[in-house]
Amino acid sequence: MDGEVAGGVSFPPGVPDSLADAEAIRVNDWRAYNELVQLEDHWSLKAWVPGYAAYYWYLTFAEAELVALAARCQDRLDTTHLDLIPPDGLHVTLVKVGAADDITDPELPQFVTAAEQRLAGLASFSVEVGPLAGSRSAIRLSVTPWDRLVDLHERLRTSVISVRPTPAPKPTSRFRPHLGIAYNNQRRPAAPVIEMVAALRDIGPVSVSVDRVKLVRLWRTDHQYRWEECAAIALGT
Known about the structure:
Keywords: Ligase. InterPro entries: Cyclic_Pdiesterase. GO terms for molecular function: ligase activity. The structure is a single chain. By secondary structure, this protein is an alpha+beta fold. The chain has a single domain, classed as Alpha-Beta Complex (Cyclic Phosphodiesterase, Chain: A), CATH 3.90.1140. Helices cover 28% and strands 33% of the residues. The protein has a 5-stranded antiparallel sheet, sandwiched between helices. A hairpin with a 3-residue loop joins strand 7 and strand 8 (138-144). The protein is globular, with a radius of gyration of 17 Å.
């Protein structure tokens, strides 16, 4: 959760020339970030009322190479006005299911069953994470390619709508895959942070496997997102 959609605007605002071309995606990510003039406070930009929680479909990762990549980047950042994402907080946000207060316990298995049906036969796949880029309120790693992730988003979105049509999750056209490593916690000029990130873009990407999706109950505490896993669906089954 790193401010990929704020005020109804996706970031990057435009899509890359190709969803399957890693370089086109990375260029698109970096161009959009490099054009920012002002960075926002993530926690204000995406304000949640105290006690709020919500259900999401997530990708989470435990590969040592990804944890090491995130740590290597974080160790070289000036963390003034940044909240670093811990190793067990690395994730890719897929689809919001709904606010926790609006979804009953008996409904949760319905969302899982619907997702299992839409994902049946969908094989696992790999993506590359890196290099470093950012958004209006976060420092994050590019994730490539997008094509399989976009398909995954559309399937999960459709599954949520089949159980609860309204409010519908954001359209797949606004989905921008990414993996955050730090959240900006103060409004400030973008140029010094972009310059810092630019110096770290020589740190190469790592490959990770997308072999399952997880339904999580998500909340905020101490300028971090935390979650509990409610269900997991293995791909390729």
